[in-house]
Design brief:
Elements (H helix, E strand, L loop, with lengths): L1 H30 L4 H5 L9 H10 L6 H13 L13 H34 L4 H16 L2 H15 L12 H29 L3 H8 L4 H19 L1 H18 L5 H10 L3 H29 L7
Amino acid sequence: MTVLRRVLTRLAIGIGVLWGAATLTFLAVYLIPGDTALLILGGPDARPTAETLAQVRADYLLDQPFLVQYGSYLGNLLQGDLGQSYRLRLPVSEAIGQQIGATAALAAAAVAVALPLTFVVAILSAQRAPWIRSIVSGVEVVFAATPTFIIGFALLIVFSFTLRWFPIGGNQGPAALILPALTLALAVFGTLSQVLRNELEDVLEQPFILTARSRGMRDLPVRIRHALRHAAIPVMTMSGFVVAALLGGSVVVETLFSRQGIGSLTLASVYNKDLPVILGIVLLSAAVYVVVNLVIDLLYTLIDPKVVTA
């Protein structure tokens, strides 16, 4: 019953998050200067007539007050209609669907690199000699503090322009995915590894760890079987950070490596003031946050039943 109440509470909060994200984004895009009708018709170079502009404004309710436009959008949203892209002339769901596969593959590859790297480095470096911890900590700080596009540029210079091991960009083949995924993975690794290593060092001081070692268990099994389970909880709490890093980083990485995906679609939509697509992407991102946090909240009880969440 407690779990059911927790799920219902999280779902209610999630609906509020989705509504807030849709409202704030709608308001922000509404206030951006510029003639949306002119952008829909191709910009100033298209030289549309006054009658054509008036017809477009009437078709998209752009000549209506803010509340009318906002109410129409929420009404369509409740019916599952995200609207039609001004620029692509496609339903928003179709425009996002065409790009989400490339971004999902990029994010999955980045996670597949970042998480094993984080766990291996943290497990092997926690409570080691000071010089080892200093070197590892320095590397983590560098990756955590370096902007994603700098990491990407550095990888391009070394592995594409100099060694010519990987293509410069594009979506063709697994080789084109390696450098973009590694760029996102290194950006996430820096922060996650710091958190996990600090937690492991605290857990390794606990009495139950000393008890396990006194029974003759070797160091590595103690770290993996006993300490990691408790130290992993703060890392799971940071899943929201990981999702944000992947979604935000995909905009930079997909642009830098000339890849198709949600990031490139977001950048083009903002540039062209394609309100329906922007709102659709924001809602998708908010929905991913809600689902991830709900799953992590439920996983707490599996990892450590003593954990009490609000």
